Amino acid sequence: MQRRGALFGMPGGSGNRKMAAGDIGELLVPHMPTIRVPRSGDRVYKNECAFSYDSPNSEGGLYVCMNTFLAFGREHVERHFRKTGQSVYMYLKRHVHERVRGASGGALPKRRNSKIFLDLDTDDDLNSDDYEYEDEAKLVIFPDHYEIALPNIEELPALVTIACDAVLSSKSPYRKQDPDTWENELPVSKYANKLTQLDNGVRIPPSGWKCARCDLRENLWLNLTDGSVLCGKWFFDSSGGNGHALEHYRDLGYPLAVKLGTITPDGADVYSFQEEEPVLDPHLAKHLAHFGIDMLHMHGTENGLQDNDSKPRISEWEVIQETGTKLKPMYGPGYTGLKNLGNSCYLSSVMQAIFSIPEFQRAYVGNLPRIFDYSPLDPTQDFNTQMTKLGHGLLSGQYSKPPMKSELIEQVMKEEYKPQQNGISPRMFKAFVSKSHPEFSSNRQQDAQEFFLHLVNLVERNRIGSENPSDVFRFLVEERIQCCQTRKVRYVERVDYLMQLPVAMEAATNKDELIAYELTRREAEANRRPLPELVRAKIPFSACLQAFSEPENVDDFWSSALQAKSAGVKTSRFASFPEYLVVQIKKFTFGLDWVPKKFDVSIDMPDLLDINHLRARGLQPGEEELPDISPPVVIPDDSKDRLMNQLIDPSDIDESSVMQLAEMGFPLEACRKAVYFTGNMGAEVAFNWIIVHMEEPDFAEPLTMPGYGGAATAGASAGLDNQPPEETVALITSMGFHRNQALQALRATNSNLERALDWIFSHPEFEEDSDFVIEMENNANANIISEAKPEGPRVKDGSGMYELFAFISHMGTSTMSGHYVCHIKKEGRWVIYNDHKVCASERPPKDLGYMYFYRRIPS
Predict the structure, then answer these.
(1) Ramachandran region of residue 53, left (φ > 0), alpha (ψ -120 to 50) or beta?
(2) Helix-, strand-, coil-residue percentages of the chain, each rounded to 5
(3) Is 634 helix (H, G, I), strand (E, B) or coil?
(4) CATH class belonging to 655-693
(5) Which tens digit of pLDDT belongs to each residue from 299-331?
(6) How far out from the chain centre does Cα 482 lie?
(7) Helix (H, G, I), strand (E, B) or coil at 642
(8) Which of 522, 527, 648, 664 shows the shortest CA–CA distance to 590?
(9) Per the residue annotation, which of 76, 248, 287, 819 is the catalytic one?
(10) Long-range contacts: 39-42, Cβ < 8 Å, 24+?
């Protein structure tokens, strides 16, 4: 055992000193009550620091608290020790050495001390024959930094040995939380290793497939034994089928099939009829090659597989990712990529755009010392801490450094390789922000627009004091509703965070080309020939903007002037313009078979956008307002209608209807709400509810059960202006703090007791500012007495002139599949963020984007 002050850059303390087993025991005695053995349900973080992206691969290693099992890098472990008094940490470090060539005969890299990191997942990219690992673990006792090398079974007390062994052998905390979300947990099929494949000369074309037993051209499965292409069951893929693939298995017993259209270099959807579940086929590339499919040069497209060598620069996959151009990697602050965790590109693209906005940079990274110092005891479960950690990781440049030739030569001379981390893994951030959300917590692809609204909601709920960076997105929409019969109008305002533009397909400027392409494509499919070169619809942006501003019919409009249902029209205008305007192109729709489809269109999005003409004008001279009368409450006699107008118990929701809707690609929580609010009347009725409500901001949010007095309660709470609960105020004042301090702290932290106490300690300057707080309390009480109208939402109104600075693009046929990348304009040039790869963009595909981010131009 040794005392190593040098570990933290302190002079001296590097001498060795041997101690007997009794000495080690005596040294640990004062700390034994704080050393715990991980129990079932404990999350053990040994791969990533709670405050940074340091890992055992980092130069300073990682320290795991032996009480909380949180991990900290060298820069942050002292903070945790000072805050909690926990003294015993396990230090983990992985050393990477260049293997002596020829010594191992080409074997895979081995791990020395293999008992140390049995389940260490550090996203190591050096899995090659050129390097070998040496893993190190030891106990470190603070504040004197005494070290005890591990394993040390003979000298350590039994409890400490058991605790160390449990920490080292613990599984990933993310898999423990939700094992069903990990794709790599799929079982390997027992038929994959010895699968029989018939030499029948079958070769599968890249497109134009059709079921061998019917005319279906979607949801097709390739049997890996005889090459038959047959349709699946409806529940396989939610896209319809007559079950011929299953019948083929029952007739001949050929067990494995792969879904056509899902084959990429990373794998494909494989199903085992014999095992009755999705499986992994470790020899899939070989099995596909038997039928002429080169898996490593394929990717999924709407019509099937397309070889990368055919029709270059036409597929949206190639255009959006700028395939075929020599892209120069970018390094340094603001040029850090995010590693893909498996369908996490929607999150990565949104977060790259978010942290390119100065207001978010200042709110989180600018307040890093205060947010980290006053974070709760478990910072992995605090939104502001994890936002700050992610922002610092992206903006600091610490995890995006170019390789230096001189350093590489020096490392080779020393025979030790220092891995250069490029890109960060947002695993901890994703686990927290998606917690309790059934869609985002899964490993499936999601809608970037839905995640953006989900993130805004989290920012709103966890704002830091009075500072709320999401204010930059918020704007007011004025909706003018007119009764067509009486011509009377009603003006209402609502809050929104993005502008949704419809795709004006009827305004395409190349209609003749589109018609000719469609005829040629159908002929090619019928004759099983290669598809023609893609022709993409070209839509003028002005036509989409015009479609946005045009009146739309209001279904089931009840006219208060007629006291009856009537025809009504609605127009929307901006009552305020946000500082940053997010524009979503509504590319996704639904076919007649309820399957989500995507408009593959090109829209000439402008670099400079002027929407001042969309400014709301309010009630105009000569307009007459509709009477402020609510529709009558009708209690129908029909039992069916009565069922639809009463609340059902959430436990009685028809799960079969929910799953039918979910298999169509709708978010699970939206499906539950649809079935709930339509009174279990079946999937068809619930589907109609989805179509009506799918553009609402909370469409995919979890179902909130309404109460019979819910509306009144909401109105009362709004009048309280965020009045904290009296019991929480009393609890803080019982600790010796003034009432005004308690009120201000609770208002600044959404009445979170732990964060309110941290806020009090971090804001001593507010202690004397009692007059302001008393005035706020008096105003709140006055609001209750006078029932005054509460203050409206905060908006940052200004000019409607904007310039484009970022856009997110989607590749694939629906938001439930495919891939997202982000382009951001930085320092005068466009940069592409494609997961962990960050490069200077040569040809930014601004016409193919899905979400566009505009900043206001000062007038």
Answers:
(1) alpha
(2) 35, 20, 45
(3) coil
(4) mainly alpha
(5) 443 334 333 333 333 578 888 888 878 899 999
(6) 39
(7) helix
(8) 664
(9) 819
(10) 41/176, 42/69
Q: How confident is the model at residue 635 (pLDDT cuts 50, 70, 90)?
A: very low
Q: What is the mean pLDDT of the chain?
A: 79
**Domain 733-762's class?**
mainly alpha
Q: Is-contact 537 505, C-beta < 8 A?
A: yes
DSSP E strand boundaries for 594-702 = 596-598, 601-603, 608-610
> Could you give the C-alpha distances from 294 to 257, 340, 665, in angstroms and in order?
17, 24, 29
Residue 847, pLDDT score:
95
Active site residue 483: no
How many CB atoms within 10 Å of residue 51?
26
DSSP states of 741-800 as a string? HHHHHHHHTTT-HHHHHHHHHH-GGGTT-HHHHHHHHHHHHHHHHHTPPPP--------S
Q: How far is Cα 234 from Cα 190, in angstroms, rounded to an integer?
A: 26
Q: How far lies 189's CA from each of 230, 247, 259, in Å?
A: 21, 20, 16
Q: Where in the chain is the domain with CATH 1.10.8.10?
A: 655-693, 733-762
User: What CATH topology corresponds to 185-298?
Assistant: Herpes Virus-1 (3.30.40)
Pick the CATH number of 331-472+800-856 from 3.90.70.10, 1.10.3720.10, 3.30.420.10, 3.90.550.10: 3.90.70.10
pTM: 0.68
Q: How far is 849 from 826, CA to CA, in rounded Å?
A: 18
CATH 3.90.70.10 in the chain: give the residue spans.
331-472+800-856
3-class secondary-structure state, position 404 = coil
**Is 819 designated active site?**
yes
In whole angstroms, give the CA distance from residue 746 to residue 16. Answer: 52
Check if the beta carbon of residue 323 is closer than 8 Å to that of residue 235: no
Task: Give 491's Cβ-side CA count (13 Å radius).
Answer: 14
Catalytic residue among 49, 65, 345, 839: 345
* CA–CA dist 94, 57 (Å, integer): 5
Structure tokens, 431: 């686990």
Element of type H or E holding 90: strand 88-98
Binding annotation for Zn(2+): 211, 214, 231, 244
**Token representation of residue 417:** 């390789």
**pLDDT per residue over 112-153, tens digit each?**
444 445 455 444 455 445 667 788 899 999 999 999 988 877
Going from the C-alpha of 306 to that of each of 314, 318, 809, the distances in angstroms are: 11, 11, 20
Give the whole-angstrom CA distance, residue 750 versus residue 684. Answer: 40
Phi, psi of 124 (to 5 degrees): -75, 125
What pLDDT is attached to residue 595? 54
Q: Which pair of tokens denotes residue 351?
A: 């977060």
Please, are residues 820 and 323 in contact by the beta-carbon 8 Å criterion?
no
22-98+130-169 CATH fold: Herpes Virus-1 (3.30.40)
